């Protein structure tokens, strides 16, 4: 029977110091990508498993989960955090929440912080789903759950909403009202969600027998300010050349568009129908109550905690879950048939 490989064996195989191996295990963002890959390859070759006693939590310590949120300034993500907190309270565990401000480098630092705090597992709404550091967390055995933002096939649990279906619902609603010139506002190269929502809209257009050119794309990130910018562009156009409806990638964009076009004398919904996405609390309380796609925000957070605790409690028998929640369309006064 061969002796188990040690951290020093891994260091020799990878041609690095034992401290570098330790950083790969505990602070992966401190190590360059190529070096990190070399160390992980050495671990795989040697069947290295970190000594469990070194990573054992103190007896009697309350279980603590980490929750890394892309942007707590977005009420949608704040609601996810509230759902996670409620579930944690119900299950008798703690939650350490970090805010990454849509900054990839800040996300890496905060993930390191959670590892240093020895959380039992991590839930993450990632800034960038392509972040290789997340894969290294999975490879080193950290229980991980992706929330809302997912991409590809990761060997871990994830929970999200059906964004394609949400886009389809929005498109079918607007087309059913008679709109034939629709603008989609929202384009983020990191966000798979925006792409899926746009694809749902295009699917509705195709099913209606209309050409893809019926949809105009206006790039914008997630903020109210970006929505106002898009609203200014629309308001400046000749009414005959302007789309009769817009579908926004989230409610903050939609509220920004609504504010700006109304300020310029464009009537909503008589001149322009607007649909948002998320059904934030502001949506129904806006100047013109907003038609929007509802998502189960707090349920996402609650389910993520349950998934993570299942894996932590029964690691040997745990089977990764992939849950996709169905959205719904909430129709309010911001949509109407075009004139």
Q: Taking strands numbered 1, 2, ... along the chain, how are they ordered across the largest sheet?
A: 2-1-3-4-5-11
Total individual domains:
3
What is the N-to-C succession of helices and strands?
A: HHHEHEHEHEEHEHEHEHEEHEE
Going by CATH, the architecture of the largest domain would be 3-Layer(aba) Sandwich
> Tell me, what is the CATH class of the largest domain?
Alpha Beta
CATH superfamily of the largest domain: Response regulator
Tell me the distance between the termini. Answer: 81 Å
Strand count, sense and barrel status of the largest sheet are: 6 strands, parallel
Number of strands: 12
Poorly predicted regions: 52-61
Mean pLDDT: 85
From the spread of the alpha carbons, the general shape counts as: elongated
* Structural class designation: alpha/beta
CATH topology of the largest domain: Rossmann fold
Number of helices: 11
Radius of gyration: 23 Å
Helix content: 40-55%
User: Hey, roughly how much beta strand do the residues contain?
Assistant: 15-25%
Question: Can you put this structure into words, describing what you see?
Answer:
There is one protein chain. With 339 residues, this protein is α/β, with parallel strands linked by helices. The chain has three domains: 7-52, 434 Repressor (Amino-terminal Domain), CATH 1.10.260; 63-160 and 297-325, Rossmann fold, CATH 3.40.50; 163-295, Response regulator (Rossmann fold, 3-Layer(aba) Sandwich). It contains eleven helices and twelve strands. The strands form two sheets. It has a six-stranded parallel beta sheet, sandwiched between helices. A six-stranded mixed beta sheet has the order 7-6-8-9-10-12, with helices on both faces. Strand 8 (245-248), helix 10 and strand 9 (273-278) form a beta-alpha-beta unit. The longest helix has 17 residues, at 75-91. The chain is elongated, with a radius of gyration of 23 Å. It starts with 6 loop residues before the first helix and ends in a 9-residue tail after the last strand. The relative contact order is 0.13. The model is unreliable at 52-61 (pLDDT under 50).
């Amino acid at each position: 029977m061969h002796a188990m490989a040690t951290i020093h064996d891994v260091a020799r195989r990878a041609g690095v110091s034992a401290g570098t191996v330790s950083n790969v295990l505990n602070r992966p963002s401190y190590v360059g990508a190529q070096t990190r890959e070399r160390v992980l390859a050495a671990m795989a070759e040697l069947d290295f498993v970190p000594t469990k006693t070194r990573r054992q939590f103190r007896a009697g310590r309350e279980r603590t989960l980490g929750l890394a949120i892309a942007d707590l300034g977005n009420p949608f993500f704040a609601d996810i955090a509230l759902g996670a907190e409620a579930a944690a309270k119900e299950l008798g565990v703690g939650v350490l929440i970090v805010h990454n401000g849509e900054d990839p480098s800040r996300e890496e630092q905060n993930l390191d912080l959670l590892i240093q705090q020895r959380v039992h597992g991590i839930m993450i709404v990632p800034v960038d789903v392509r972040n290789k550091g997340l894969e290294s967390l999975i490879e080193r055995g950290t229980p991980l759950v992706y929330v809302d933002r997912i991409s590809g096939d990761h060997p871990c649990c994830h929970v999200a909403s059906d964004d394609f279906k949400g886009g389809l619902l929005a498109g079918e609603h607007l087309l059913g009202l008679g709109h034939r010139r629709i603008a989609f506002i929202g384009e983020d190269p990191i966000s798979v969600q925006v792409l899926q929502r746009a694809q749902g809209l295009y699917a509705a257009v195709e099913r209606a027998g209309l050409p893809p050119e019926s949809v105009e794309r206006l790039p914008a990130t997630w903020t109210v300010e970006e929505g106002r910018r898009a609203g200014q562009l629309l308001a400046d156009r000749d009414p005959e050349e302007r789309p009769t409806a817009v579908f926004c990638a989230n409610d903050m964009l939609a509220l920004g568009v609504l504010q700006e076009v109304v300020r310029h004398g464009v009537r909503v919904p008589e001149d322009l129908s607007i649909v948002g996405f998320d059904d934030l609390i502001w949506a129904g309380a806006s100047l013109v109550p907003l038609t929007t796609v509802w998502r189960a925000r707090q349920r996402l957070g609650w389910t993520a905690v349950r998934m993570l605790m299942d894996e932590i409690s029964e690691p040997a028998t745990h089977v990764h879950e992939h849950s996709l929640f169905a959205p719904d369309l909430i129709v309010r006064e911001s949509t109407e048939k075009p004139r």
